[in-house]
Amino acid sequence: MSLIERTRTGFSKAYGHSPSGVAFAPGRVNLIGEHVDYNDGLVLPMPIAAGTAVAWSLTDDADVEALALDYGLARDRFDPKTAEKPALPGWQSYVRGMAQLSGHAGVKLAIAGSIPRGSGLSSSASLCVAVGQALAAARGPSACDPLQIARAAQHVEHRWAGVNCGIMDQMAIAAGQPGAALLLDCRSLETRRIDLPEDWDVMIVQSGVVRGLVEGHYNARRRDCEAAAAALGVASLRDADAAMVGAADLDPVVRRRAIHVVEEIARVRTAVDAIEARDLTGLGATLRASHASLRDLFAVSVPAVDTLVDQLNKAIGQDGGARMTGGGFGGAVVAILPSDAAVRVRAQLERDYRSPDGAAIQIMIERAGTLPAGTMR
C-alpha cells in the first residue's frame, strides 16, 4: 500500500468518511551546501521519494483535528486562533503552528510519513509543508503558494520547535522538482533546476545515529556564524571571503566556522559546474572536501558518520564521493556515484558497516527523473 493510500485509508477509518483530498510533500537530501542557508549562501538540495502525506476534509466547527497515523493514532484538537505551543516539541507543534499561520479552521487531518525520523532528511519541514498544502487546498486551488508555504514552515521551525534554521529545507520541499536538484540562493530565493545525468545515482545511507538539532547545538553554530559576520562588519558570511576571514581578529572557534561557510558556498558553485560538465570525479572530490570541512571546521559530524563516509568513499573510488548531509550530529550520509556501481557499493556497505545499535543498514536510491512517492491530489 502506497503512502497516499495508507493515509487515505487511515483517515476514512478514523473519521468514518473519505477525505476530500490528500497533500504530499517530499523530504529532501542536501547534495552540498551545509550550514550555509542561514548565512544567505547557496545550497543544492534535491527532493526525495519519501515524504509526508496529509489527508483532509472540511468541518462545520472552528477547530482543527489532527490524527498522527504513525504515532499510535494520537490525536490533537485545537482552535488555531488560541493554540499554544506544547511543552515539548513534537508533531503537534508543527501542525498547530502551520494551522495558526494559515488562519484556516474547521478541518480534519490525518498524517502519515515515510521519512525515517532523525535521519537528516527534513521530516519536520516535510510535515510542515504537507500540512500547509492541505490547509491551502481546503481554501481552494489558488491558495497554494510554494514560497508562502515555505516561509510559514520556516517560521514554525523557529517559533514552535525552537530550531533557528535557514529556509533551504522548506524551499527545496515546496518548490523543488521531482528527480532534479535545486540550486537555491538563500538570500534572493532565486532557484535553478539542476538535472543530474541519468546514469548517476544518489545514494542515501542512514548512519543509525538519530540526531537532534536543538540538543546537537545547531543554534550554537548559527550564533558562531552571526558573531563572525558581526566581527567582519558584513550582513552575513555570504558577503565575506577567505582573505577577510584570514585577516580578522576572530576567536579560533568562530574563525573555523566562518572558513567552513565561505569555502562551502564556493564548493556549491564548483559542484554545479561539475554536474553540468558530467565530471563525476570532480564532483566526488568536492563532496569529500565538504565532509572534511564539516568534520574538522564546523564540528557537526560524529564518529559513526565519519566511518560510514570513509567506507562509502572507499567503495565508490574516484568516480563519485560521499559526505554527511543535514544539520549533523548523526543522521544520513549522501553519495553520488555511477548507476552501474550502486549494486556493488550497496552490497559492500551491507557487509562492512554496522550502525552503533547493530540495526540493519537503511539505504535509499534516488535516480534522475524519479517521481516522489506521492503527489498533491
From TrEMBL:
Domain GHMP kinase N-terminal, chain residue ranges per copy: 99-176
Signal sequence bounds: none
Gene Ontology cellular component terms for the protein in this record: cytosol
Domain of life: Bacteria
GO molecular function terms attached to this record: ATP binding; galactokinase activity; metal ion binding
Classification via Pfam families: GalKase_gal_bdg, GHMP_kinases_C, GHMP_kinases_N
Domain GHMP kinase C-terminal span(s) in chain numbering: 272-353
Span of domain Galactokinase N-terminal: 11-57
Keywords: ATP-binding, Carbohydrate metabolism, Cytoplasm, Galactose metabolism, Kinase, Magnesium, Metal-binding, Nucleotide-binding, Transferase
GO process terms (BP): galactose metabolic process
Ranges in a coiled coil: none
Transferase keyword on record: yes
SUPFAM superfamilies referenced in this protein's UniProt entry, alphabetically: GHMP Kinase, C-terminal domain, Ribosomal protein S5 domain 2-like
Entry annotated with the keyword Magnesium: yes
UniProt-listed InterPro entries: Galactokinase (IPR000705), Galactokinase_CS (IPR019741), GalKase_N (IPR019539), GHMP_kinase_C_dom (IPR013750), GHMP_kinase_C_sf (IPR036554), GHMP_kinase_N_dom (IPR006204), GHMP_knse_ATP-bd_CS (IPR006203), Mevalonate/galactokinase (IPR006206)
Assigned EC number: 2.7.1.6
Protein family according to the UniProt entry: Belongs to the GHMP kinase family. GalK subfamily.
Name of the protein this chain belongs to: Galactokinase
Organism: Novosphingobium kunmingense
Source organism phylogeny: Bacteria, Pseudomonadati, Pseudomonadota, Alphaproteobacteria, Sphingomonadales
